[in-house]
Amino acid sequence: MAFFDTFKDKAMDLAQTGVAKSKQLAEIAKLNLANAGEEDNIKKAYIELGKLYYAERGMAPEAAYAALCEKVTAAKVNIEENKARIDELKTEEGILEDDPVIMEVHPEEPVTPPAPPAGDDNVPPEEPPQF
């Protein structure tokens, strides 16, 4: 009978150790998730800080920020040129704003290609992946 009592005590100790370890792992996972959220908050704050700096000082930045401000300014100029060219092309071709072919791309949104028309028998079937 002493054997079973010893076995029972060891099993209880092992179970308690397992519960303690699982609590530790759960807390570690929770803290890692919280850290990831805080890192995301930092990234968002950096972006806002950069936008604010550019808005206030972008045309006359301090030397350390000049190259980055020039990149932003050049990108904005390119965007405006592209928009002007898009407008020209739309006017030339008589394309309407609600034409399904025209898609405006926003950096915050992922771009997904349009789905093929339903019942298009000319589309070859997808082949299963080769392993």
Structure description:
By secondary structure, the chain is mostly helical. Among the domains are: 46 residues; 35 residues. Helix content is 64%, strand content 0%. It has two helices and no strands. It is elongated, with a radius of gyration of 30 Å. The mean pLDDT is 82.
- Structural class by SSE content: mainly alpha
Order of helices and strands: HH
Largest sheet: none
Rg result: 30 Å
How much helicity do the residues have?
A: 55-70%
Distance between the termini: 57 Å
Q: Strand tally, please?
A: 0
Topology:
Blueprint lengths: L1 H56 L8 H28 L38
Task: Give a brief outline of the structure.
64% of the residues lie in helices and 0% in strands. The chain is an all-alpha fold and 131 residues long.
Features:
about 130 residues, 2 helices, mainly alpha
